[in-house]
Amino acid sequence: MKTLSLALFLALLMLRPATAQPEQVLRDLTEASTQLAEAGAALAASEGFDSRIAALTAAIRAYELGLNAMRTALRGAAVQEREIANALAGERETLVQLLGVIAALESAPAPLTLLHPDGPLASARAGALMAAMAPDMQKEVATLSGQLDQLRVINALRKDAETNLRIGLGELQQARGALNAALDQRDAEGQRQRVSVSPVAAEQLDSLLRASENLAFFADGLAAMPAPEIPGQVDFVSLQGVLAAPVVGEILRGFNAADAAGIRRPGVIFSAQPLALVSTPTAATVRYAGEFLNYGLVIILEPAPDYLITYTGLGRSFVTEGDILAAGDPVGEMGGDLPIAQEFLIETSSVTGASGSETLYMELRRKGTPVDPTPWFAPLQ
């Protein structure tokens, strides 16, 4: 029975599950911390409203990207910690069996441990098996020691990352407040670039709003109305594959993809964090900004003749009709309330879940026909 127990223990050593390596998690945590540090550096002093707003917008987006990366990395760390902890828990039974075998051998009289009831050949085999056990035990001890070291390293990095995340959240809120103040001051001093909307165009827009029964009808009517001529507009088609997404997040549902109820929409849905900044991916003119039917806040941009970009789902708008926007200019922010640091950390401890609780719907129309906007985006970060 003693020989059988030793053989079983050796088999358990050979069959022990391998755990994932934490190197990628460590790289992700380090990279996310670097992104947050770079975001802080982006808040250098600048002159003039446009440059100040551009700097703040870039800093906010950098903070959001850094926090998003930090959230993902912390979730990866949580997964890694669970895997290692589960592996160590699995080893506990193996080690208990080993200690039981050793205790049984030590309690037996010395001559009996050298003899086997099946004769000298069986005794020799049992001795060889026990001799083979030593290096496997050393290997197992080294593996367990390495796993404990991995846990210590990941735990230390995770604590540093959580500190950086708290700091980043606070600085992000400060940057948002500074951006709102800069936008308000620019408007108060009449420094916003915009084209004048004639009384006739305003009346036409009013009539269209009253007649529209849905967003598609409204967008079609808006496309048919004369648009202000903006000098220097680029060829929108040539921008495919290079534009930044309008919000930091993930594509939750693709173009014309069916939702749980089987409903298809001719646009894409992004998941985003509460209060995430929404920007224009390219230079554009604001054709409409305001509440519309049951869609809530709607913003429609014209990046080029024959093209319209529609956003719904925002909590706040920074623009009005006729505004001329440069690429990356903020147009609004998502709704919701930014969680406090402790709530944010509780969220990152979860190994599943979407990257944000708010959703931004985006449509791109060419001559009134919806087209898939995703080919215009650079790879999402």
Your description of this structure?
This protein has helices at residues 2-15, 23-41, 49-107, 110-114, 120-188, 199-211, 215-224, 341-348, and strands spanning 249-253, 268-272, 277-279, 284-291, 297-304, 307-317, 324-325, 330-334, 358-366, 369-371. The chain is α+β, with helices and mostly antiparallel strands and 381 residues long. The chain has 2 domains: 2-188, no CATH class; 199-376, Glucose Permease (Domain IIA). Helix 1 runs antiparallel to helix 3 and helix 1 packs parallel to helix 5. The model is unreliable at 1-21 and 110-116 (pLDDT under 50).
Which helices and strands occur, and which strands form pairs?
Layout: H1 2-15, H2 23-41, H3 49-107, H4 110-114, H5 120-188, H6 199-211, H7 215-224, E1 249-253, E2 268-272, E3 277-279, E4 284-291, E5 297-304, E6 307-317, E7 324-325, E8 330-334, H8 341-348, E9 358-366, E10 369-371
Helix pairs in contact: 1-3, 1-5, 2-3, 2-5, 3-5, 3-8
